[in-house]
Structure formats: structure tokens, C-alpha cells
Design goal:
With 371 residues, the chain is an alpha/beta fold. It contains 12 helices and 12 strands. The radius of gyration is 20 Å and the shape is globular. The structure holds nicotinamide-adenine-dinucleotide (NAD). Nicotinamide-adenine-dinucleotide (NAD) binds next to helix 4, helix 6 and strand 7.
Length: 371
């Protein structure tokens, strides 16, 4: 039995399913990691090159994120092996075949992820009657348009400020990645008096110590242009943004953007991780040693999944945003306090809290189990 259980530990995964529908060329995998707290919520990724172990790691990350956020949901993830840039009609066939193939996996609630969107979730919902991240006409809350994750991130930052003796009024903020997460967190922080001194996108960055005008930046992005075309300010390379002096540095782009290679250039008191795994563990250890506070990804960027879970339970937008605010503030405080009390990094403190919550949920089950 060896290989099949290579991924298994005391929390999961509860189910690993290979899905194959040769008539339409569907090849997919589903990992339901742990459902002790309730049915797993996790994205459907469409990509040609994701391994089973990567899918399992992403599913575990969802278990911990959902537990940390206090949701009555476990974690899962699925991958459809295909190029997401295929024509819409072909995409629809694959997504519908995938949905049909998981119709009996009723402890998994699919959501959008890289290569899928709310339209895809509408097709899944049409096939099997369950999905999150739906379009508004099906009761969905447009979380990227409203900035649910940025809203949560701004509140995580608000709760972290006393731990690093900062206030938002006049705080200098750098945002790497000016997409759904980055542009909204910038907007919420500026509304509280912060100053955005640098932003970047995939083409490079722009900085101005006196502050950048978010409306001008948004105009550029909605015209399909880059933030580097902002009039005034100093142009930066994509990597230069790491070294811009600031109080709060927010990664909201890609994984591993700060590593042992460039971490010594980072000059901030607080880092709030909007992106998933934006820093290597070595870089995080270095920052912890230097006394830079890092709110880890699965605590700081949970706004999106909280919104998705609230949508699933029929909540309104305003109820979802109120829940995000409350949960992110409470969780950030708990994690940072435990990190201080026990002298461990915020990530280690957060992981311990999340695993303890999953274990407690497991204790309530007849078999004490993950599945
Ligand atoms: P997005 O595609 O809307 O925006 C990403 C932005 O990053 C774009 O502006 C892009 O140009 C920029 N970018 C790409 N490569 C870059 C680079 N090397 N340097 C600087 N900028 C770069 O994506 P998003 O939804 O905002 O997600 C951003 C990150 O946050 C991802 O890691 C995602 O997994 C994570 N995340 C998103 C949500 C959500 O609700 N959207 C929730 C949790 C986590």
C-alpha cells in the first residue's frame, strides 16, 4: 500500500480521487484533505502541470486557512489537467465533465482558482448544485470586485499595528501586485490615512515618497496599461520594490518573491501577506530574527474564503464583510499574542492554533477522523 499513503499524516488527506473521462479528455484529481469541521471548500485549478503532492499541499493549506478563519468547513483542492487558455466552449465541456465526475463527492464544495472563474462555477453549480464564487445572478458575492481579501488584509493590519507600535495615519505602505487583492487593500488603507509610497505589477513598479494617487493607478490598469506608466514618481524594476523604505510591505502577487536572495533589502516594520506563500521560510525566519512582524498568508488573506463560505450559507454582502472584519481582527490578535507569549514566529503560532482547531473538530467525530 506504500505509495498511495505517502501523503498521509494525522490530519489527512481523507480522500484522493483520480477522475478520468476519456470521451472528452478529462483528467483531473481531487484531494479532500479534512472534513472534520464540515464539507471542504477549495478551488478548482485548471493547469497542465500540477503534481498530486502539490494539490495535496494546497488542500492542506485550505484546511488550515479555513480552521484559522473559524469556518465550519474543511479544506480540499482539485486540479483539471488542461491549458486554461482553451476556447470557452471546450472549457465548458471539461468543467461540466469534471463537475459530473465529482457529483457524489458531496463533502467537497468547489470554488474558483487559477484558470477558473465565476462562470466556471456557474457550470459546476448547474451540474451538481454546489459551488462557491458564483456570479451574482446565482446569489454569488463578487468578492474580487468588492475586494473581500483586501478588506480582510486591511483589518489584519489594523489588529497588528499595536504589536509593532505603528499607526495607520501617515504610515508608508508598499504594495507588490496591483490586482484584485493589491488595489483594494491600498484603497482601504488610504481611507484610514495611510500613504501608498510604491506599487508594482508584472511589468515593474513606481514609487513616490509623497504618495501615489490610487485613482490614476486604477485608470491605468483598467485601460490595460501598467502602473509603470504613472506620470511622475520613480520607475522601479519588478524586484526593486522589495527595497523601498516603508512601514508596511504587502506582497499581493506571486509565490516566493522574497527569499534569502533579497530579504536583506526589505525595510519595513510589518509585512501582511496577501499572496499565498510569497516568502520562502528562510526569508521569514530572517525577518523574525530582525524583529519584522509578518502576518502569515493563511491568516491575513482569508477574506476571500470567508466571503465564499458566507455566500454558500446565503449571507448578504454586508454580513460577509462584517464577518471578515471580525474574524481577521480576532485571529490576527490571537496569533500575534501567542507568538509573543511563546517566543515563536507568527507562522508557527498560527499553524499551532489552526492544527489545534482541526484536532478539536476531529475529536467530535465518531472515528475521530479526517473524513
Ligand atoms: P490578480 O491576478 O488580480 O493580480 C495579481 C497582480 O500581480 C497583477 O497586477 C499582476 O500584474 C501582478 N504581478 C504578477 N507578477 C508580478 C511580479 N513579479 N511583481 C509584481 N507584480 C506582479 O491576482 P489576485 O487575485 O490579486 O491575487 C494575488 C495573490 O493573492 C495570489 O497569490 C493569490 O493566490 C492570492 N490570493 C488571492 C485571493 C483573492 O481573493 N483574489 C485570496 C487569497 C489569496
Amino acid at each position: 500500500m506504500g505509495d498511495v499513503f505517502e501523503l498521509a499524516d494525522e490530519l489527512g488527506p481523507a480522500r484522493v480521487v483520480h477522475l478520468h473521462e476519456p470521451t472528452v479528455g478529462l483528467k483531473a484529481i481531487l484531494v479532500v484533505d479534512n472534513v472534520a469541521a464540515g464539507p471542504a471548500i477549495g478551488g478548482v485549478r485548471m493547469a497542465p502541470d500540477v503534481s498530486l503532492s502539490e494539490c495535496a499541499r494546497l488542500a492542506r493549506a485550505m484546511t488550515l486557512k479555513n480552521a484559522m478563519a473559524g469556518l465550519s468547513h474543511g479544506g480540499g483542492k482539485s486540479v483539471i489537467f488542461a491549458d486554461p487558455k482553451r476556447p470557452e466552449a471546450e472549457k465548458q465541456i471539461l468543467i461540466r465533465a469534471f463537475a459530473h465526475a465529482i457529483r457524489t463527492e458531496d463533502r467537497y464544495i468547489p470554488g474558483p482558482d487559477m484558470g477558473t472563474n465565476e462562470r466556471c462555477m456557474a457550470w459546476v453549480h448547474d451540474e451538481i448544485g454546489r459551488a462557491v464564487g458564483l456570479p451574482p445572478e446565482l446569489g454569488g458575492i463578487p468578492l474580487d470586485q468588492l475586494g473581500a481579501t483586501g478588506w480582510g488584509l486591511a483589518h489584519a493590519i489594523g489588529a497588528a499595528l499595536p504589536f509593532c507600535k505603528l499607526t495607520l495615519k501617515g504610515a508608508r505602505v508598499v504594495v507588490q501586485g496591483f490586482g484584485s487583492v493589491g488595489r483594494h487593500v491600498a484603497r482601504f488603507l488610504v481611507a484610514e490615512g495611510a500613504v501608498i509610497v510604491a506599487v508594482s505589477d508584472s511589468r515593474g513598479g513606481i514609487s513616490h515618497p509623497g504618495g501615489l494617487d490610487l485613482d490614476r493607478l486604477a485608470e491605468l490598469k483598467s485601460a490595460g496599461r501598467s502602473v509603470t506608466e504613472y506620470p511622475g514618481g520613480t520607475a522601479l524594476s519588478a524586484d526593486d520594490i522589495v527595497g523601498v523604505p516603508c512601514d508596511i510591505w504587502i506582497p499581493a502577487a506571486r509565490p516566493d518573491v522574497v527569499s534569502e536572495r533579497n530579504v536583506d533589502r526589505l525595510q519595513a516594520r510589518l509585512v501582511a501577506q496577501g499572496a499565498n506563500i510569497p516568502f520562502t521560510s528562510g526569508a521569514e525566519r530572517d525577518l523574525h530574527r530582525r524583529g519584522v512582524l509578518v502576518i502569515p498568508d493563511f491568516v491575513a488573506n482569508a477574506g476571500g474564503v470567508i466571503c465564499a463560505a458566507m455566500e454558500y450559507h446565503g449571507a448578504t454582502r454586508s454580513a460577509a464583510f462584517a464577518a471578515i472584519e471580525e474574524m481577521l481582527r480576532e485571529n490576527t490578535r490571537e496569533v500575534l499574542q501567542q507568538s509573543l507569549d511563546e517566543g515563536v514566529s507568527p507562522r508557527d503560532a498560527a499553524a499551532a492554533i489552526a492544527v489545534q482547531r482541526v484536532r478539536r473538530a476531529m475529536d467530535n467525530r465518531r472515528w475521530g477522523g479526517a473524513g
